[in-house]
Amino acid sequence: MKTSVAENIVQFGTRQIAYRLHRSDRKRLRIVVSPELTVDVYAPIDAENNQIDALVQKKAGWIARKLDLLDGYHPLPAPTRYLTGETIVYLGRQYRLKIENGPPQPAKLHGRFLRVWVKDKTDMKTVKQAVDAWFRQRAHEVFKRYLSKCREITSRHGVPEPLLTVRTMHRRWGSCSPSGRITLNVKLVQVPVHCIEYVIIHELCHLQHHNHSKSFYSLLTRCLPDWQKRKEILGSVRLS
Question: Which domains are delineated in the chain?
Answer without folding.
Answer: 3-72 (no CATH), 75-137 (no CATH), 140-238 (3.30.2010.10)
